[in-house]
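#struct-help
A.M.: can someone run this one for me? Single chain, 234 residues.
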Amino acid sequence: MSRSIWIILGVMAVGLVLLVLNDMSGDVSGLSSDTFGRVLYLGIFGAVVGAGILGSRHRLGDVARNLALWLLVILVFIAGYQYRYELQDIASRVTAGLVPGSPLSITDSDGRTTVTLEKMPNGHFEARISVDGAAMQVLVDTGATSTVLTANDARRAGFDPETLAYTIPVSTANGNATAARVTAKELTLGAITRRNVTLLVAAPGMLDQSLLGMNFIGTLSGFDMRGDRMILRD
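D.P.: on it. Structure tokens below:
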């Protein structure tokens, strides 16, 4: 075993002994036990890295370049974590611009979420939601009491329209219809999620597009429309 390894082990042993002996007082050579422990840890880490560099046969220039590269990678990861909310907002904005109806989710430092929807060319607000993991395009209808799925969307979400009992009368843009009641384990709009949501499934052929109704919107802290935008606040 090389001399440098013995020196490192000796420093570790002395440091640990000092920490144990001064644990009750909470002070080691004028430093708090926590501070001394961090200094000891960083010193040992630096000594190990330095010993590895000196013991290697690589040129110092190559070693310095590799260390700088790893330092850059670490800083990128740290910056990504610190600015994770801002990066999420950027990703949401890009997606909202590329995919019509994609919700723009913004989460502030307190964890509060707002979702913004852009008005579609047809003059309505539509959104891409997920019901039990199945993505679908829905019309946001603040005049609808319940969220109503078409038979096709219900099938994608794992419900079998052929086995449902259509006994609930509903009023749609196409007139009166009947629907069946089901429960979704999870309904997600952007970064807003609700669990165990009661939904209606329209009888096959009775509804052209699924509706996001007030039984979901009413669970939010608020919503408002500003020009061509609808803002939903969790």
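A.M.: thanks! The CA atoms of residues 16 and 116 lie 56 Å apart.
D.P.: also worth noting: The longest strand covers residues 175-189.
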